[in-house]
Write a structure and sequence with these properties.
The chain is α/β, with parallel strands linked by helices. It is built from 13 helices and eight strands. Helix 9 crosses helix 10.
């Protein structure tokens, strides 16, 4: 896998793909991204597969539609699929590439902050099926092309979406925490620090077989449950932000972690808002998470900034902690 992090790098994709001498090329993207960025792929012959925006696109229905379009257009195993877009598109394009004819070459060009620092990194693909990312594969792309210039086109809600994952990395890594707290915003350096950190974990445990990669799930069991609770009408990163606050409270109970460290990060990025929920209903949704191994609730809990533990947590403690959150409704 080759990683490119460079301003203006979207315009280099044609050279990268053409060097692979593909039989055919498809670009999977959504309507908004197509309008903003598709023209940057000048010099490349491709079939555009333009989808609606939103989490509902990441489904078996749309995956099946894409398989049919690829077959109808005569794509073979020597073809290339490009996923150009945010996390929904990179997850879906990766899933389609990994399954079409048992795998074709994949290039991911993430266009949101969340996708650039997290969703497009690490080889996970997926669609939603009776839950978040319940069906998917591990499949590494040939290229990941990160162009920080495209972030200038993001609407405010997409910045917030990415900030949730950025705060996660700032809890996991002292290096990223220091860079984030010193800086006044997101820049190319912070993006690269997050990507390099995630790859350092993924390279040790690509398929989560040894437990090492599970640290990247900090805040995510709660977040996936909250997303499902709201019918996927809230942004993933915003749900992660609330999941990080929940994890911090658990860390305080179990290890003396100071939740103020997480509150400071969330406030820095304007993520101190509240999404209400009923604790017993959220706990029920958490049980359906795919990380609910061996019938136990296994969560990532911070010990201090830069150190977390993966532990089994009693449901009674989880329910009590949910009830203590500011967003709890009883």
């Amino acid at each position: 896998m080759e990683l490119v992090i460079r301003r203006g790098s979207l315009k280099s994709i044609a050279d990268m793909v053409n060097a692979l001498r593909p039989h055919r090329v498809a670009v999977i993207t959504d309507k908004r991204v197509a309008t903003l960025h598709l023209e940057k792929l000048n010099g490349l012959e491709y079939t555009p597969l333009i989808l609606p925006e939103g989490e509902s696109t990441k489904s078996l229905t749309f995956a099946s539609m894409l398989w049919e379009k690829l077959l109808d257009a005569g794509f073979t195993r020597k073809s290339v699929i490009i996923g150009l877009g945010g996390g929904v598109i990179t997850d879906l394009a990766g899933f389609v590439a990994s399954t079409f004819m048992r795998g074709v070459s994949l290039l991911l060009a993430p266009t949101t902050l969340l996708a650039q620092i997290d969703a497009a990194i690490g080889g996970k693909t997926g669609i939603n099926f009776r839950g978040k990312n319940m069906v998917g594969t591990f499949y590494l792309p040939r290229y990941i092309v990160i162009d920080p210039d495209v972030l200038h086109t993001l609407p405010p809600e997409e910045w917030s979406n990415g900030y949730g994952e950025l705060v996660k990395y700032a809890i996991l890594s002292r290096d990223i925490h220091g860079a984030v707290m010193r800086g006044s915003g997101v820049n190319e350096d912070i993006i690269e620090r997050c990507v390099r950190y995630k790859l350092s974990i993924v390279n040790q445990d690509l398929k989560e077989e040894h437990g090492i990669r599970r640290v990247l799930n900090l805040g995510h069991t709660f977040a996936h449950a909250l997303e499902k609770y709201y019918g996927y009408k809230i942004k993933h990163g915003v749900a992660v932000a609330q999941g990080l606050r929940f994890s911090a409270l658990l860390g305080e109970k179990l290890y003396g972690f100071d939740p103020a460290d997480v509150d400071a990060l969330l406030m820095k990025f304007g993520l101190d808002g509240c999404i209400p929920f009923k604790p017993i209903e959220l706990l029920r949704a958490m049980r359906n998470d795919k990380k609910f191994w061996y019938g136990k609730m296994t969560l990532v809990v911070p010990v201090e900034i830069g150190t977390v533990k993966v532990v089994d947590v009693e449901e009674s403690l989880i329910l009590r902690t949910l009830g203590e959150m500011p967003c709890s409704q009883g």
